[in-house]
Design a protein that fits this description.
Helix content is 78%, strand content 0%. It folds into two domains: 86 residues, Rna Polymerase Sigma Factor, Chain: A (Orthogonal Bundle), CATH 1.10.1740; 102 residues, Arc Repressor Mutant, subunit A, CATH 1.10.10. Helix 1 crosses helix 2, helix 2 runs antiparallel to helix 3 and helix 6 crosses helix 10. The protein is mainly alpha-helical.
């Protein structure tokens, strides 16, 4: 999309023109998704972050700022959403890299420790309330996405997100009491390899 087309489209969106919004969406979805995917290394999370950006733009269309380059605005907005995404998940690239390094350095003994860590993790999950336990297990162990869990349980995706959030907080509090650093490292690896 050319710069003058971008600005014209942007102005029409601010006036509530759905056709212009669709044109913007179609013109930038793929590039934004690819950027998010390269950053997150997770297709579903990347799709969700980009989708949330476009929903936000449409909901706030009347208050969108004046911009000189729509594409630059979109990528900065996406970058901010990606940073928020990492903050919400309370994980940093450093922690993920450390977990990956632990995985790469696995010896036979480390694999046993990882299996021990998964046992500890599963025992902690078993202490969660039944519905949270089900949702947490489906998400982390069965690797189902939020929509799949919502369909299976009959709950809304937001309810599933809420249950995962509360369960994750309870797990974090429970796991912070673990004394064995190798078990702790294995638990971190087990959690991150599922995401």
């Amino acid at each position: 999309m050319k710069l003058d087309q971008e600005i014209c489209c942007w102005e029409k969106i601010k006036q509530g023109d759905q056709r212009s919004f669709t044109e913007l969406f179609d013109g930038y979805w793929e590039d934004l998704f690819q950027y998010a995917y390269r950053t997150l290394k997770n297709r579903e999370d990347a799709q969700e972050v980009v989708q949330e950006l476009f929903v936000y733009l449409w909901n706030k269309r009347e208050n969108l700022p004046e911009v000189q380059a729509v594409s630059a605005y979109l990528f900065v907005a996406l970058k901010n959403r990606l940073l928020n995404h990492f903050a919400k998940k309370k994980m940093s690239l450093t922690v993920i890299n450390e977990a990956e390094q632990i995985a790469a350095a696995n010896s036979a003994a480390d694999i046993l420790h990882t299996k021990d860590a998964e046992k500890v993790l599963r025992s902690k999950v078993a202490q969660l309330p039944e519905k949270m336990q089900q949702v947490y297990s489906m998400y982390h162990f069965e690797e189902l996405n939020i929509d799949e869990i919502a369909n299976y349980t009959g709950n809304s995706p937001q309810t599933i997100r809420n249950q995962l959030n509360v369960a994750s907080k309870k797990m974090k509090a429970s796991l912070s009491k673990a004394d064995d650093i190798i078990i702790w490292a294995g638990i971190i690896f087990t959690l991150f390899k599922k995401n």
